[in-house]
Amino acid sequence: MNRPSAYQAPNGNLVWHHHPVDQARRAELKGQRPALLWFTGLSASGKSTLAGALEQVLTDQGYHTYLLDGDNVRHGLCADLGFSDADRTENIRRVGQVARLLTDAGLIVLASFISPFRADRQRVRDILPDGQFIEVFMDVPLDICRRRDPKGLYGRAERGEIRQFTGIDSPYEPPESPEVRIEAGRISIPQGVNQLLDDLNRRGLLGAGCRLTKPAGRRHAPQF
């Protein structure tokens, strides 16, 4: 693994050790180019749903992937963190470092996190090689997310049962120039997958290209 450009050793006694097998060699063996697709958006915007659907299509066609999910990592890696601004920043810092290791292994990584602060997302971008961070903004209005509320979290936050809930009493800073913008309130899940596959193919990230799914009419296609 090459030392990231944003790397700073925690103290002067540590020296980066370069190994002979690098990211390019690992990716070559997999027939793909590594990347981190960072899904950001409000709770109930469809981040995990779309990330999971895309990963299924990619793995079914032989690509090597890993999905990092916001709720899941808080069961282990980030189980000690709460939802203060400082803890949210540390949560994204840890996940960013894990994602960097996974992309260095040659994987296509999908990360699904509210990640409300632009500065935190930028720090993850900065530790990856140029072009390997792809910000996917799930652009869904707050009122639609509130109506969806599959986990009942907005209702609990509005009743004061959950504090520091993004969109209610904690801010969300939307991306200013995301690589991909998904209007999940207007399209179906297959259409969202196709939009992402189109983008990945344009970037040449899928070695042999990737067949697009054929969405049914909107009435029959799975919705967010």
Describe this structure in words.
The chain is an alpha/beta fold and 224 residues long. The protein has a single domain (23-202), classed as P-loop containing nucleotide triphosphate hydrolases (Rossmann fold). Helices cover 37% and strands 11% of the residues. The chain has 8 helices and 5 strands; from the N terminus they run αβαβααβαβααβα. A 5-stranded parallel β-sheet has the order 2-3-1-4-5, sandwiched between helices. The radius of gyration is 18 Å and the shape is globular.
Can I get a quick summary?
This protein is α/β, with parallel strands linked by helices. 37% of the residues lie in helices and 11% in strands.
Top keywords for this entry?
224 residues; alpha/beta; Rossmann fold; 5-stranded parallel beta sheet
Number of helices: 8
Major sheet characteristics: 5 strands, parallel
Mean pLDDT: 90
Please write the string of helix (H) and strand (E) elements.
Answer: HEHEHHEHEHHEH
Portion in helices? 25-40%
Uncertain runs with pLDDT below 50, 5 residues or more?
A: none
Topology:
Elements: H1 23-30, E1 35-40, H2 47-60, E2 65-69, H3 70-73, H4 85-104, E3 108-112, H5 118-126, E4 133-138, H6 142-148, H7 153-158, E5 180-182, H8 189-202
Parallel strand pairs: 1-3, 1-4, 2-3, 4-5
Helix pairs in contact: 2-8, 4-5
